[in-house]
């Protein structure tokens, strides 16, 4: 009985959760963990690409640090193996959705060419050390097949770094170093094969003082390869066929490398110029325009200083064009993260809906004013309001010298002129002169943009108009009587509109009734016509009546006619 109870208890207990599933989650290929793992894989791949070739061509290097090489070799192999495990736990996108099912991920990875290369790169070729000896690092050349992970890591870093052009140049220099490194190793191996010191082209005899050192061997080979691949010249002439073939191959490689370098550098320079043109306006066209029209030197100097200020301080005036390729929602989020704090400082926009502020942020236009430049003058028509982002502006008298007040970062002006407030005594005219004391960065919000946004938010529009009235009351710029008159006129107009709407509804109702009566009369007429048609079909035709009179006898005809009349008159009534 005890054994049976133990069996039942074991069967009824739920299975324990797998620890492997908890410790190895599915990685997002666009996430941070996967990105940092790719950067980790750069080190073992670069180790095999650089060090293995060097150990194979420089025997002294292999023999001097044998234990260290074994440790590094099998550490890189362990990382290669872990990389395969990571591949089996990296999701992929299907219909734009990340697939996290391990079965689908494994089946998809196994069918790819990358899985075959990963397996071949981990083949235990080191087993041949038993027969060939531990000083044959060429057995590990299959580790080169993991190079695609290096390129993938570089591509991800290029898209994430804040300095992609500098990274492209660094990557190009790394490729050049690897090519020269491989070429120098092949040069030393070819010199050893042909014999050191046999002619002036090969590496000198190590028996000569100084040339037996490992560092001298590598540096001499690297220098010789650099001279060849850069086509500088000043190299000894080859004397053997193998040397000629090596030089020809290096010259062809140098031509390809030169074309690659020139193309890459041209691309980097073009990208930098394109980025500058997108961020900052082109001043060359403006300078040429002023030169053609002979603008005075003082004004030309102000324009040049304005452009110089933008480039030196990295200020942009065309943010809309820069962000135009982003989706609308993502563009709004970027603009909100950059400018929402500035817009929320404006008193008239405080306590408004977040969606309204997001819409307004997309409408902000950055502007930069030079020292002494007027932002607006008294009496100008106000078509926009301004928010000070950086700099100082002064409210000055008509003489341009006397200052009444100084406005700093976070303040605003001109907001009343873009909101239609009833009773506004100043109308849409500017009431003061605003002049920039230094270089000032402002945000401009036009009246049309604000009206377009507020058309979708009537409640917010009412709140903003109320705040505007409060500001005008404090400034004694609100005519209460005129406001009441405008409100009364608006109410009367609305009443007339409601009356017209009611009359229009009545006319529509009467017209609908007339249409209904007309349709009813038409139906009745159609029914009567159809009934008459059916009745006329039962009447005999005139030709048939004439034939019947000619063929029949007179007595019979008289009797038939009498019967017919009797039939038409109907049955006799009861006697």
Which stretches are poorly predicted, pLDDT < 50 over at least 5 residues? 1-21, 555-575
Q: If you compute it from the alpha carbons, what radius of gyration comes out, rounded to the nearest whole angstrom?
A: 47 Å
For the biggest β-sheet, the strand order reads 3-10-5-8
Give the overall shape: flat
Indicate the structural class: alpha+beta
End-to-end Cα distance: 114 Å
Secondary structure tally, helices: 22
Mean pLDDT: 81
- Beta percentage is 5-15%
Number of strands: 10
The percent range for helix content is 55-70%
Largest sheet: 4 strands, antiparallel
Structure overview:
It is a multi-pass membrane protein. One of its GO terms (cellular component) is intracellular cyclic nucleotide activated cation channel complex. The protein is 62% helix and 7% strand. With 575 residues, the protein is of the alpha+beta class. The strands form 3 sheets. It has a 4-stranded antiparallel beta sheet. The longest helix has 58 residues. It is flat. It starts with a helix and ends in a 6-residue tail after the last helix. The N terminus and C terminus are likely disordered.
């Amino acid at each position: 009985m005890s054994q049976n109870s133990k069996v039942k208890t074991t069967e009824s207990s739920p299975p324990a959760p797998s620890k492997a599933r908890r410790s190895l989650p599915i990685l997002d290929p666009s996430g941070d963990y996967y990105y940092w793992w790719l950067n980790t894989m750069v080190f073992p791949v670069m180790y095999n690409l650089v060090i293995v070739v060097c150990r194979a061509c420089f025997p002294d290097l292999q023999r001097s640090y044998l234990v260290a090489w074994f440790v590094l070799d099998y550490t890189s192999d362990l990382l290669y193996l872990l990389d395969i495990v990571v591949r089996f736990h990296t999701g992929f996108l299907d219909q734009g959705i990340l697939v996290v099912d391990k079965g689908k991920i494994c089946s998809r990875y196994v069918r790819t060419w990358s899985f075959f290369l990963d397996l071949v790169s981990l083949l235990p070729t080191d087993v041949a050390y038993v027969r060939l000896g531990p000083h044959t690092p060429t057995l590990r050349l299959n580790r080169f097949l993991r190079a695609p992970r290096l390129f993938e890591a570089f591509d991800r870093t290029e898209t994430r770094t804040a300095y992609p052009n500098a990274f492209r140049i660094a990557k190009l220099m790394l490729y050049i170093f690897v090519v020269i490194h491989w070429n120098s190793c092949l040069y030393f191996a070819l010199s050893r094969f042909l014999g050191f010191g046999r002619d002036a082209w090969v590496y000198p005899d190590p028996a000569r003082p100084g040339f037996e050192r490992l560092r001298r061997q590598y540096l001499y080979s690297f220098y010789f390869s650099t001279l060849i691949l850069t086509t500088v010249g000043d190299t000894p002439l080859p004397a053997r066929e193998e040397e000629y073939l090596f030089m020809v191959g290096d010259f062809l490689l140098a031509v390809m490398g030169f074309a690659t370098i020139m193309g890459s550098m041209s691309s980097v320079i073009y990208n930098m110029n394109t980025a500058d043109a997108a961020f900052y306006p082109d001043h060359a066209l403006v300078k040429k325009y002023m030169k053609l029209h002979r603008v005075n030197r003082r004004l030309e100097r102000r324009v040049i200083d304005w452009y110089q200020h933008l480039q030196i301080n990295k200020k942009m005036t065309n943010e809309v064009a820069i962000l135009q390729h982003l989706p609308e929602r993502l563009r709004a989020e970027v603009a909100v993260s950059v400018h929402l704090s500035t817009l929320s400082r404006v008193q008239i926009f405080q306590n408004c809906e977040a969606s309204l502020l997001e819409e307004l942020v997309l409408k902000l236009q950055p502007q930069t004013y030079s020292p002494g430049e007027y932002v607006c003058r008294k009496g100008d028509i106000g078509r926009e309001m301004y928010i000070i982002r950086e700099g100082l502006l002064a409210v000055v008298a008509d003489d341009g010298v006397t200052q009444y007040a100084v406005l700093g970062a976070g303040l605003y002006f001109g907001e009343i002129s873009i909101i239609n407030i009833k009773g506004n005594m100043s109308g849409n005219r500017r009431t003061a002169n605003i002049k920039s004391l230094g270089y000032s960065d402002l945000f401009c919000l036009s009246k049309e943009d604000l009206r377009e946004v507020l058309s979708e938010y009537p409640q917010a529009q009412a709140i903003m108009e109320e705040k505007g009235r409060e500001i005008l009351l404090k400034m004694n710029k609100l005519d209460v009587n005129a406001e009441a008159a405008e409100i009364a006129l608006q109410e009367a107009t609305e009443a007339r509109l409601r009356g017209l709407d009611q009359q229009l509804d009545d006319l529509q109702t009467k017209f609908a009734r007339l249409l209904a009566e007309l349709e009813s009369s038409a139906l009745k007429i159609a029914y009567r016509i159809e009934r008459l048609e059916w009745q006329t079909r039962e009447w005999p035709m005139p030709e048939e009546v004439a034939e019947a009179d000619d063929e029949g006898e007179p007595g019979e005809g008289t009797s038939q006619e009498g019967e017919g009349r009797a039939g038409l008159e109907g049955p006799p009534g009861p006697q």
